[in-house]
């Protein structure tokens, strides 16, 4: 069986084009996580707060970030996909975040095969409303979980997202190769 974190390449042309393995779905409260030991997608929990994912959310294969997890990616989609779906995507921004004292940044990406996102190339192409919705979700989704604190620290552009992806690829290489 293919392990989507270890066996799948980071992308067809990283960091310009990456693969995103979807775990959580736009519009849902289920928090799925890929378990590399099974390998498969498991239900981790249902979000305690009355919020839902603003878009499909998952991780970048063969990446490892400062929080000691695969690097997180939010792929902007019009319609949800499914847990375990692999989406070819272009990074367009980086949302910097602190999750219980750990750096837990998120790459914001768009599908390469959806013409509705052809015009989205960088942070400035995202509407303020879209950034506000994403930020609001990540600042509140753990509010009702005891002892959890999340803070969005700010936004950065496509270049920063690509740098962060390269950093995550390097950490993966150091740790697992």
From TrEMBL:
Gene3D superfamilies in UniProt: Inorganic pyrophosphatase
Catalytic activity: diphosphate + H2O = 2 phosphate + H(+)
List of residues binding substrate: 31, 45, 57, 141
Annotated InterPro entries: Pyrophosphatase, Pyrophosphatase_sf
Keywords from the UniProt entry: Cytoplasm, Hydrolase, Magnesium, Metal-binding
Binding site for Mg(2+) 1: 67, 72, 104
SUPFAM superfamilies for this protein: Inorganic pyrophosphatase
Superkingdom classification of source: Archaea
Binding site for Mg(2+) 2: 72
UniProt keyword Hydrolase, yes or no: yes
Annotated compartments: Cytoplasm
GO molecular function, a single term: magnesium ion binding
GO cellular component, one term: cytoplasm
EC number, as in UniProt: 3.6.1.1
CC cofactor: Mg(2+)
Family: Belongs to the PPase family.
Function: Catalyzes the hydrolysis of inorganic pyrophosphate (PPi) forming two phosphate ions.
Subunit structure: Homohexamer.
The protein, known as: Inorganic pyrophosphatase
């Amino acid at each position: 069986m293919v392990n989507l974190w270890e066996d799948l390449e980071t992308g067809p042309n990283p960091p310009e084009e990456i693969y995103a393995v979807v775990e959580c779905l736009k519009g849902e409260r289920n928090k799925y996580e890929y378990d590399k030991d099974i390998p498969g997608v498991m239900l981790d929990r249902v979000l305690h707060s009355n919020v839902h994912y603003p878009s499909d959310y998952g991780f970048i294969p063969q990446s490892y970030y400062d929080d000691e997890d695969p690097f997180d990616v939010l792929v902007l989609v019009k319609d949800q996909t499914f847990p375990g779906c692999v989406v070819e995507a272009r990074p367009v921004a980086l949302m910097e975040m602190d999750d219980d004292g750990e750096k837990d940044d998120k790459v914001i990406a768009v599908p390469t095969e959806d013409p509705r996102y052809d015009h989205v190339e960088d942070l400035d192409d995202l509407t303020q409303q879209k950034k506000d919705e994403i930020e609001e979700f990540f600042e509140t989704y753990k509010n009702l979980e005891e002892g959890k604190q999340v803070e969005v620290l700010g936004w950065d552009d496509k270049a920063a997202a690509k740098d962060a992806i390269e950093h995550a690829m390097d950490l993966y290489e150091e740790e697992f190769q």
